[in-house]
């Protein structure tokens, strides 16, 4: 049963990285003729796909509080930060010097692969929360601190990380009651998403130091809370659905293969940024293709092709111990 749950989450990880690449296809390959915020499919994917990914990180990383801080820091640094630095150098060079008008190398290097850096920060916060004797105080304190960590969207991602850790700690209940969780969370998510219109999606990222003196601070805070809630309910509906699917697929050969591919999402995330956001963005332009054809047919096909190419590159890189450690974040 435990193995089935992990297979289900590996399959879920593959679905999550598909959503990431699918969203990047819409963002980079057909955004020249209209405002991306007008694309309801992009808004749909963006409303929950990164919180989903962070919840998965929280699920698999929920036992980190058992480690000493030095061991935790070293483990997460090698797993998340080292690959983001290695690929970040390539990404920044490509973006700034190959792509005309790419911008500042340092700024690009700092911002690229933001999710891995956010996951690193969330892991440290979660470790601190679980080490505080009073768990309620620890939860409130780390949540409050996270809301002032604006870089790498930690203020949005840490609540999702906590959700993932909570699901791991209640995984047996989740497996037995997945349908009872799925249906109400899906309904709540759909209600929230139905109000996520162009204007709401267009609001600037919350920066408390900019709005503390603004009469609109309560409005910005409510939008911020709304976005977090929508991401969490979307995440819960997807996770519970895949737990149900995982009760079937693990007994099929296909489920084992998909699970194996899903375990490579870190490498896929790193490689697709260069493959799709650099090379394909420069060579492909689907601006003249109809919205429905691109979003429902072409973009999913491209996303699948990109995943396959990334997997081929990953398996090739794994032949080198150096590349496995410093570019794919595997243990020494």
Name some characteristics of this structure.
0% strand, 332 residues, mainly alpha
What does this protein look like?
- The chain is mainly α and 332 residues long.
- Helices cover 77% and strands 0% of the residues.
- The chain has 17 helices and no strands.
- It has helices at 2-29, 40-46, 49-60, 69-98, 105-111, 114-131, 135-146, 154-169, 171-176, 178-194, 198-202, 208-211, 217-246, 253-262, 265-283, 291-317, 321-326.
- The longest helix has 30 residues, at 69-98.
- The chain starts with a helix and ends in a 6-residue tail after the last helix.
Radius of gyration: 20 Å
Q: Which range does the strand content fall in?
A: under 5%
Low-confidence stretches: none
The count of strands amounts to 0
The outline comes out as globular
Helical amount = over 70%
Mean pLDDT: 86
Order of helices and strands: HHHHHHHHHHHHHHHHH
- Largest beta sheet, briefly? none
Give the count of helical stretches. 17
The secondary structure category is: mainly alpha
How far apart, in Å, are the first and last alpha carbons? 30 Å
